[in-house]
């Protein structure tokens, strides 16, 4: 039997909240994705190099290296700059969204997120480009 189309897709979830990491992991695994977890930006940067996830979800408010800084570092790396980075935050203000865009984020999701929000984001950013 062939693997499902989602099984080869690695998704990284970076959040200092164990509850958020586990919720996202459960939703994404149920949809058939391979899920990697990191509790902060420093841990995530090493994982990104080693595992090359197709989509990265990053919390904004984290100790040591926040989500904006983590996103900017990912996007400044020529190897990973095209990897979609999706911000996760309980902040929903225009300033926060703008700051996320300035850091290079591809999408901004507010918490609490739903299973549908997460899956839709992964599907949207891993869909093969249609030939023109």
| Helix percent band | 40-55%
So how many helices?
5
> Whole-number radius of gyration?
14 Å
Largest sheet: 5 strands, parallel
Name of the CATH class: Alpha Beta
- Could you give the distance between the termini? 32 Å
User: Which of globular, elongated, flat, extended, rod-shaped describes the shape?
Assistant: globular
Overall tally of domains:
1
Strand content: 15-25%
CATH topology: Rossmann fold
Describe this structure in words.
- The protein is an alpha/beta fold.
- The protein has a single domain, classed as Response regulator (Rossmann fold, 3-Layer(aba) Sandwich), CATH 3.40.50.
- The chain contains five helices and five strands; from the N terminus they run E-H-E-H-E-H-E-H-E-H.
- The chain has a five-stranded parallel β-sheet with strand order 2-1-3-4-5, sandwiched between helices.
- Helix 2 packs parallel to helix 3 and helix 3 packs parallel to helix 4.
- The radius of gyration is 14 Å and the shape is globular.
């Amino acid at each position: 039997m062939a693997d499902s189309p989602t099984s080869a897709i690695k998704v990284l979830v970076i959040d200092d909240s164990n509850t958020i990491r586990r919720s996202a992991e459960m939703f994404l695994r149920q949809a058939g994705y391979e899920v990697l977890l990191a509790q902060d930006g420093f841990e995530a940067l090493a994982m990104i190099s080693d595992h090359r996830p197709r989509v990265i979800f990053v919390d904004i408010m984290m100790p040591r290296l926040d989500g904006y800084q983590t996103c900017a570092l990912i996007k400044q790396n020529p190897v990973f700059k095209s990897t979609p980075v999706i911000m996760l935050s309980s902040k929903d203000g225009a300033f926060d969204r703008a700051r996320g865009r300035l850091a290079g984020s591809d999408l901004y999701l507010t918490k609490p997120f739903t299973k549908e929000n997460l899956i839709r984001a992964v599907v949207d950013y891993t869909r093969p480009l249609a030939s023109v």
